Every structure is written in C-alpha cells, then in structure tokens.
Amino acid sequence: MLTRVDIYNIRNLEAVRLHDLGRVCVLFGENGSGKTSVLEAIHMLSLARSFRASSARSVIRHGESHCTVYGEVSHGGGAVRALGVQRERSGMAMLKVAGRPVRNVSGLVAELPVLVINADSFQLLVGAPAARRRFLDWGVFHVEHEFFAAWQRFQRCIKQRNTLLRRDKLQTEELDAWTHDLALAGERLTMCRHRYFEQLVPVFHEVAEKLVPECGSLALRFRQGWDATLSYAEALKASTASDRDQGYTHVGPQRAEIIVTVDGHSAADTLSRGQQKLVVCALKLAQGYVLKQQDRSMTCAYLIDDLPSELDAGHTRRVCAQLEALGAQVFITCIAEDAIAGMWPAAAAPPQLFHVEQGQVTSVGRANPGAPAPSIADSENDA
Ligand SMILES: Nc1ncnc2c1ncn2[C@@H]1O[C@H](COP(=O)(O)OP(=O)(O)OP(=O)(O)O)[C@@H](O)[C@H]1O
Ligand SMILES: [Mg+2]
C-alpha cells in the first residue's frame, strides 16, 4: 500500500505531501483544482509517465525544469520501500527503488502496480486491439514471471526479422535463424497470455454479474494472433511469401486480440456509454482479483478519475462495493465532497477525504460513517 507520496512540480501541484495514506482515498474539489494531477503523480511513481500526456514536458509545472515524485510503499510487517521518479523536460528519467537507481520501468512497476479508470478507459472496448493487448499484458506481466523476458526477446526478434525482410538482397540463412528465435519467443509469450486469460475469464464473469447483471451474456475470447491450429513456426512458414512481399511479419502475438461480446454482438457496438464504463471496471477489477489470487500479499492501486461521471447512483455504489470487497488501495477523484463518500458501503471503514484547491491538498479526515446505506436492490447485488 502506498502510505506516503510527495509531489513536486507536477502541473499545478508545486509541493504536495500526502502522509499516512489509507486504503481508500477520495480527492474532491472544483474543476482545475489538481485532482487528476495527483493521480498522474501516483501513476508517474509506478510507470515513470503520465496516463494523459505522452511527453513529460506537458506534465512538468510551467517554468520548472523537472518534476519529482517520491513515495513509500508499505509491504506489511513494518517493511517500507521508497520509490522515486524524476523527469526532466528533455524526457530524461531518473528512477530509484529503495535508494538505488533502476534502469528499467519494470523495476518500478513491480513495486507499485497501478490500474487507471478514467474517461478514456472506454477505449479498452471501442479502441484499437493494441489497447486490449496492453490490458492483457499488464496482467500477464504481474502474474507470469517468465513473460517479461519472453516479451523482450520477442520484440528484439521481430524487429530484426522485419529489418531483414525489408532488405533488397534477402539473406535467407539469417532470416531463418531469426524466424526460429521469433517462433520460440512468440510461443512462450503466448503461452503466458493464454494461462493468464484462463484465470481472468471466470473472475471477470463474477464481477460483471455484480456490476452489470442487466447487461446480457458477456463473453471474452482471446485470439492469439495466428491460426490456432498451427504452431507459430508453421504459421510463420506459411506467411513467409507475403512477409517478403510486404516487408514485415504478418502473423504473431503482435496481432493478438481480446474480443468482448454481449449476447453474441460486439460489446463496443452494443453497450451504452455507462455500460461500457462498467464493463471496463469489471475487466480492471478482475485483474486486481487475479493478482491477489496469485499472491495474497500483492494488490494493485486503483487510480479512478471522476468515478461518478456517466454512472447512476446504484451503479456507482456497486463499483464502490466491489472495490471495497477486493481490498485494494483506491484513489478516487470527484467534484463534490460526498459524491463517493456517500456511496461507499456503510459497513466499511469510511474513506479518507482530501480537499484539493488551487494545487493545495488538505486532509479533511474521514467521511461521515453515517452516510446513506445502499438500497435493498444494491445490497443484494453487493452481497
Ligand atoms: N504544466 C502545467 N503547469 C502548470 N499548471 C498546469 C500545467 N498543466 C495543467 N495545469 C493546470 O493544472 C490544473 C490542474 O488540472 P487537473 O486536470 O489536475 O484538474 P482537476 O482537478 O482534475 O479538474 P477537473 O475536475 O476539471 O477534472 C489546471 O488548472 C490546469 O490548467
Ligand atoms: Mg480531472
């Protein structure tokens, strides 16, 4: 659990220090006060980048040369691990775990896995397959320990193979060697994806049934990126001629896809905007559950920007109840003080409230435990 975060020069947050963070933190305040920027800072601590800007430049406070986020993650039993990230306008990043520099973001992300749910999250359903591959690989990375090495190997092999395919004079022996390595890495990576997907599906169904029982029959299908009746080596062999013609590798894990359907129809084309958000919440909650199943001491932190938007009160309560049941740490933003606090299950510990105002964040204690209880229909679903 992230127990402390110090933020310097991220957007309108000049110096914000949040200590003694609890499991459920609600950040409320007016438009432009800095709520999303706090989530961005926590995301930076996990992945060294923002979730809403591709360059560090736009995140760094105007007029400053760099931004810094420092955090402490408690691993229980008094063990605390310090994380630090500094980004410069040039794009340079300095990452530290327990005071030691780390070269790769993978070292950082393993310490503090975060999942974002925001206004763009519906892209997971309606966007390009790459968004669903990223979603899948987030989970595979945290659950399947051999995945990252296979993924790195695969990226190297496909890059080399595509370079060779584009050469005027084809060096067949070299191409065969890289194709062989590519097939091995691709099979290994895909096996990890398959195993993770098998774990994810039943959990997703359970969560979706609680969040959107009215939605019809939701189904997830995994497409591995080549004809499933062939080995990857066979599929690569079969596509060699077209790969040579067009100068790139047509088949493989780089084309993998998750298909989401409702009553046999594309979920992206069928579901309402609010239902899409709920299905995305179910997918991301399922990832949190699978992570916890894998290692009971391991959970991820949820960064949820403006949860109430597009959701009615009943569905907002159901999402809150599921987040509470999972037991993961949650940072939620909203405009009004009671927008989330009033929706959180009455039986649970009340959320910790933070008022965000013109780049300043003030802890205002716990929400009133006397918040209205969910209606009977919601309680039934929550149960
Ligand atoms: N690089 C920057 N330097 C300084 N200020 C910035 C920078 N980028 C954005 N801002 C300002 O930071 C403020 C915080 O934005 P943020 O998106 O965090 O607000 P918010 O509280 O989430 O608002 P909303 O409720 O509208 O989503 C905004 O007023 C914005 O104009
Ligand atoms: Mg915002």
From TrEMBL:
Keywords: ATP-binding, Cytoplasm, DNA damage, DNA repair, DNA replication, DNA-binding, Nucleotide-binding, SOS response. The keyword Nucleotide-binding applies. It is found in: Cytoplasm. InterPro entries: DNA-binding_RecF, DNA-binding_RecF_CS, P-loop_NTPase, RecF/RecN/SMC_N, RecF_2. Residues 364-383 are annotated as: Disordered. One of its GO terms (cellular component) is cytoplasm. Pfam families: SMC_N (PF02463). Residues 1-343 form the RecF/RecN/SMC N-terminal domain. ATP binds at residues 29-36. GO terms for biological process: DNA replication; DNA synthesis involved in DNA repair; double-strand break repair; SOS response. One of its GO terms (molecular function) is single-stranded DNA binding. PROSITE patterns: RECF_1. The RecF protein is involved in DNA metabolism; it is required for DNA replication and normal SOS inducibility. RecF binds preferentially to single-stranded, linear DNA. It also seems to bind ATP. PANTHER family: DNA REPLICATION AND REPAIR PROTEIN RECF. Belongs to the RecF family. This is DNA replication and repair protein RecF. It comes from Pseudohaliea rubra DSM 19751. The lineage of its organism: Bacteria, Pseudomonadati, Pseudomonadota, Gammaproteobacteria, Cellvibrionales.
